[in-house]
TrEMBL record:
Composition skew (Polar residues), residue ranges: 128-140
Keywords: Methyltransferase, Mitochondrion, RNA-binding, rRNA processing, S-adenosyl-L-methionine, Transferase, Transit peptide
Residues binding S-adenosyl-L-methionine, per UniProt: 200-206, 223, 256, 274
GO cellular component term of the entry, any: mitochondrial large ribosomal subunit
PROSITE patterns, per database record: SAM_MT_RSMB_NOP
Organism encoding this protein: Seriola dumerili (Greater amberjack)
Family recorded in the similarity comment: Belongs to the class I-like SAM-binding methyltransferase superfamily. RsmB/NOP family.
InterPro entries (alphabetical): MeTrfase_RsmB-F_NOP2_cat, MeTrfase_RsmB-F_NOP2_dom, RCMT, SAM-dependent_MTases_sf
Signal peptide: none
Protein name according to UniProt: 5-cytosine rRNA methyltransferase NSUN4
PANTHER family: 5-METHYLCYTOSINE RRNA METHYLTRANSFERASE NSUN4, NCL1 YEAST -RELATED NOL1/NOP2/FMU SUN DOMAIN-CONTAINING
Length: 396
């Protein structure tokens, strides 16, 4: 311990001495050695400027500003906590945007776009269902779980939430996440007694939201990264009472999700496939661990391939009549619509599985007071085989 402290002291000293030396060459050398000429955040912006200006046209400048602005959090309330957190946050000016959703509203045509993620729910037809070619839109409105509550400060108010405090049972009262991350969990339409698969689950924000429904019979939580799965376990321990985290209720694994079809088929009523992606906002903000860094170029290029394999695995794992939610936090069409389109095609051609795409427009319309959504997007390669889907864009 003493040695460690001395070492730390010495390190600090060296730092101090360096800061006293005249700036000249030393500063230049250090800069050159540690900072790439083009940091990953700049490479990400260059890439988005090139691709999204074409994909989004005149919407890109405002979407760009939104991506570069401070992220706005939501606080997902923890029903397992004993503290009266909601009243406390309401007193501070927050509102539960799910409770405020306009469930009576009918979708209208005017819609504007803002930011990040593409979320696409897909329904698996009965095995003897008719072949759907081209893929058909299934117009249904998910029943919103009354138990998922997520509060936000009013539009334009970027007050930060204080870290959640533990209650007398050491459970935290809320989990902070991008408010839009709750939308795929709501759209998944989990019903009483369902078996649910969360294929890429860590660090666990959406897993927690799914557990808040208190409707799930069995939840299977997976993430290929062992370290991130460890984080997820810690999150669950901080929010969910031990008696809920039994083998009968939940299974936590660290498998490669792309191989899930080899492990378990036709087993789940619902599957959430929240894939790794270019995490657009993060890639513009943080140089550390950035997918646009030169060392991760190969990984970035392989993303659509991995996403497709994960979605296909989620489809195989779901039983006939079940629903699959594909979600990302990127605007990229290649990582959103193209992946869903290819998955539908391959599921039919290779596995004989027929899918219909659920139209999310009525769903997004319910939340138009809180989020900006993309205008209609189309699934399908040509005019004659178009199926509409809606992509949800994170942020306010
Ligand atoms: C967008 S994050 C998931 C976020 C999570 N759903 C949440 O709400 O906190 C994507 C996750 O996919 C995981 N992942 C990447 N490749 C995977 C694979 N082949 N199988 C399973 N998980 C994978 C990553 O480790 C990462 O944790």
């Amino acid at each position: 311990m003493a040695l460690l402290m001395d070492t730390r002291f010495l390190l600090r000293k060296v730092k101090d001495l360096r800061s006293l030396t005249p700036k000249r060459n030393r500063v230049k050398e250090k800069w050159a050695a540690t900072h790439p000429k083009y940091p990953p955040t700049s490479l990400a912006l260059q890439h988005f400027d090139a691709t999204y200006s074409v994909q989004l046209g005149k919407m890109w400048p405002s979407v760009r500003v939104a991506l570069l602005s401070e992220r706005k959090y939501g606080a997902l309330l923890n029903n397992f906590s004993h503290d009266a957190v909601l009243a406390d946050l309401q007193e501070k000016g927050c509102r539960d945007f799910i409770n405020d959703a306009d469930t009576e509203a009918q979708p209208c045509l005017e819609q504007v776009s803002e930011e990040e993620s593409g979320d696409v729910p897909v329904k698996k037809s009965d095995s003897d269902g008719q072949q759907l070619s081209p893929p058909q839109l299934s117009p249904n409105i998910p029943q919103l779980s009354p138990n998922i509550k997520c509060v936000v400060f009013p539009r334009g108010d970027i007050t930060r939430f204080k870290p959640a405090r533990p209650d007398t049972y050491r459970l935290l009262g809320y989990y902070l996440l991008d408010a839009a991350s709750v939308l795929p969990c709501l759209a998944l339409n989990v019903q009483e007694g369902h078996n649910v698969l969360d294929l890429c689950a860590a660090p666990g924000g959406k897993t927690l939201a799914l557990l808040q429904t208190q409707a799930i019979r069995f939840l299977c939580v997976n993430d290929t990264s062992v370290s991130r799965t460890l984080r997820l376990r810690k999150v669950l321990q901080s929010y969910v009472p031990k008696e809920f985290l039994t083998d009968e209720n939940i299974r936590i694994t660290s498998f490669d999700g792309t191989r899930w079809g080899d492990i378990e088929r036709n087993s789940f009523d619902r599957a959430l496939v929240d894939v790794p992606c270019t995490t657009d906002r993060h890639s513009l903000m943080e140089d550390d661990n950035n997918i646009f860094s030169k060392t991760r170029t190969g990984e970035r290029r392989r993303l659509p391939q991995v996403q497709l394999a994960l979605l296909l695995a989620g489809i195989e794992a779901t039983c006939p009549g079940g629903e699959i939610m594909y979600s990302t936090c990127t605007l990229s069409q290649i990582q959103n619509l193209s992946v869903v389109e290819q998955a539908i095609h391959l599921a039919r051609e290779k596995h004989g599985i027929h899918l219909e795409v659920v139209d999310l427009q009525p769903f997004t319309h319910m939340f138009r007071k809180t989020f900006h959504f993309a205008p209609d997007l189309h699934l399908g390669g040509n005019n004659s085989s178009r199926v509409k889907v809606s992509c949800i864009f994170c942020g306010h």
